Amino acid sequence: MNKRLLIVEDDPGLQSQMRWCFSSDLEVDVAADRASALASLRRNDPQVVTLDLGLPPDPGGASEGFALLDDILRLSPMVKVIVVTGREDKENAVKAIGMGASDFYQKPLDADILTFVVNRAFRLAELEEENRELASRSNGTNIKGIVAASPQMLSVCRTLEKVAPTDVTTLITGETGTGKELLARALHDLSPRSDKPFAAINCAAIPENLLESELFGYEKGAFTGATQSKKGKIESANGGTLFLDEIGDMPMALQAKLLRFLQERSVDRVGSVRPVDVDVRVVCATHQDVRQLIDAGEFREDLYYRISEITLDVPALRDRQGDPLVIARSLLQTLSRQLDRPNLSFSDDAVRAINSYPWPGNVREMINKVKRATIMAEGKRVTAGDLELVDDCEPTDNQLNLRQVREIAERNAILQALKTTGFNMAQASRLLGITRPTLYNLTDKYRIDTSTEPAQA
Questions:
Q1: Beta strands of 38-179 (E only): which ranges?
Q2: 0.70 cut: is pTM over it?
Q3: Do 172 and 308 meet the contact criterion of CB atoms below 8 Å apart?
């Protein structure tokens, strides 16, 4: 990591002294006011900033310094800010730490102490960068069985990790095969109930006349064939988690009884008049649009609000940018080890086919295809044919072209800055953290008309 330090100090003498403190391997930039500091922050992306709170137009106070501190942490949350204060400004130093500054340094200037404080901030920045890099090399999530790299799925996983320690009733929605039961088990495993039972029941797989007794249990003699009392799934999950899969298929009559259980937290076995108290966390899942079921009169609206205190909407695999290939490679590694076919990898046509295929069956379909390919592959390379996929893409060198991606992002950022500033080149260049001549060169490069806002395509 190239070490870059930004010194924000309005006194030219102190600027020179602070520059002198640091070795030549450190790139040092200096700013004397809030505007130039923000411009340098955008342009040079320093890891550490030393910030004197007494900046013009309030050199005797701290209002401008605090405003700049807030700007820095909003624009670059990872930057380590060291607030420089006077001996009598301990209250301001404490306030700055509370706002998010990583450290403070009190004047007068001592080269050794200042160097130590700044080097400590750089070390902290390096450790955090290493931690982020290690995290990016993993599956992107700590949830067992879930492989994800896409922002969409990582957002679901982060929400799950926040929800898991609580007892809120959770509804997981998404297409068939997206891993809803894995997420339900993760909610249980990451909760304080993890050492208690996890009871799952598929509401669509059990006939209507049996589902009630399966859920709530029954007493001896409650119906023909009931030769002994039996606990239902709800009771068997006491202290743990109850997972109701495909709750959208639950019959209306049983929905009313489930709603009563969720309200009272007690169950009435079939044939019993004595309710049994149950302490259980409820997680539900469905592949159907519950709102449409409510409009069609097939699902109780009051039950929907009971089961959806928190809703996790799992995206389809085709909507998870970059995930198909990441998941396929993880599956290939696992299955090749299980099936004694080590060192298998995907050929180029297989990679293109995996990325272009819409995966209507989601992860479940992918598991089947990768397992077949692991068995059928002739050599060490799994082809699109082994996966029973068609490679419709022409092989090109531009499918993952970093320069092209960067140019698209750069053009979009310039357009956004121009629109934000009403196509004022001076303001747009400051917003982007570049000089006005550079902005003119870029608008020429990308053929952006700067006279008026371009028409929408």
A1: 48-52, 80-85, 103-106, 170-173
A2: no
A3: no
Residues, the chain: 457
- Do 271 and 227 touch, CB atoms closer than 8 A? no
Task: List the structure tokens of 434.
Answer: 């570049």
* R_g over Cα of the chain: 30
Task: Tell me if the bond preceding 108 is cis, omega within 30° of 0.
Answer: yes
User: Measuring CA to CA, how many Å separate 31 from each of 9, 44, 51, 389?
Assistant: 6, 12, 10, 58
Is 42 in contact with 34 (CB distance < 8 Å)? Answer: no
For residue 266, count other CB atoms closer than 10 A to its CB. 13
Tokens at residue 130, please? 């290493």
Q: What is the pLDDT of residues 396-430, one digit of tens each?
A: 444 456 777 788 888 888 988 888 888 888 888 88
Closest CA to 256 of 314, 220, 212: 212
Q: Are the CB atoms for 419 and 427 separated by under 8 Å?
A: no
Structure tokens at 171: 């509804």
The answer to whether 307 touches 169, Cβ cutoff 8 Å, is yes
| Local structure of residue 423 (DSSP, 8 states) | S
Residues 21 and 36: their CA atoms lie apart, in Å, by: 22
Q: Where are the beta strands (DSSP E) in 27-169?
A: 27-31, 48-52, 80-85, 103-106
Contact 235, 276 (CB under 8 A): yes
Q: Do residues 170 and 163 make contact, with C-beta atoms less than 8 angstroms apart?
A: yes
333 HSE (CA, 13 A, CB side) = 7
How far is CA 124 from each of CA 35, 43, 104, 117, 129, rounded to the nearest angstrom?
Answer: 27, 22, 15, 11, 9
> Tokens 């879930």 — which residue?
146
Token representation of residue 3: 């070490």
pLDDT digits (tens, 9 = 90+) for 304-354: 999 999 999 999 999 998 889 989 998 998 999 899 888 889 988 898 899
